[in-house]
What we know:
This protein is an alpha/beta fold and 285 residues long. Helix content is 41%, strand content 13%. Strand 1, helix 1 and strand 2 form a beta-alpha-beta unit. The radius of gyration is 18 Å and the shape is globular.
Amino acid sequence: MRRLIVNADDFGLTPGVNRAIVEAHRQGIVTSATLMANGSAFDDAIHLTQSAQQLSIGCHVVLVDGAPVSAPSLVPTLINAKGLLSKSLNNFALRAISGNLAPAEIQTEAVAQIQKLQAAGISVSHLDTHKHTHMIPTVLQALLVAARTCGIRAVRNPFGVLHFSTLLKRPGLWKQSSKVALLNRFGKGFRKTVAQAGLVTPDGTLGIVATGSLDDRLFDNIVDTIPEGTWELVCHPGYNDADLDRLRTRLRESRAVELRILTSPEAREALERSGIELVSYRQLT
């Protein structure tokens, strides 16, 4: 049996991203989304969920980029002199690995973000993190405590596969693949750690290496090589509009490309042809 969760990240980033995610759910193959509690379009996302009752919504815990939801005095090791979260993933990772980020503060901020969603009426089905920071063991441990505190039962497994034949065909993915490979050394005990905490997780993710590079051929290749089990395809649909242009993000034109792919009849036909069942995080738990 092969099952696939298609999760759209960055819900709450901009109105155009929000609109695209809901369209990709209602007209396409997106089954789940993760909402940014500190996103500038958070309220707009909450409003749109009323027309997407079957969309499984999780919390996209943001520990890099933007402002914390917690009071800055509660998370001093997570913020800079301006009271903002680190802009650099590399800097965040180095500080986390070297023990310069307080796990209790990570837990505090994660709980604050989850509870903001819950206070807005969202039944939070799962957790993941912006830029996959919970690949780092200390971040994962804090996130799992936050999940239990808030009654969340599922978390993204950010470690995955991209078939070697795909990399041979797409040299442009080699650099991103090498970065992910370095972090994959943390993946060996991930599922065991999650299970010990009493949570569930998919077998892994597809699409992280392809972030910003997804096209029709790559999508078909991913579908053709999905292993047995339950996997998650990470995606970032959106409209490349003026609101997005004002933000610091490398994902611009690619969001519109992903929206087209995710809402295309060919995408659903490819999944059906391969015998892959679409599921959501609600079904996982």
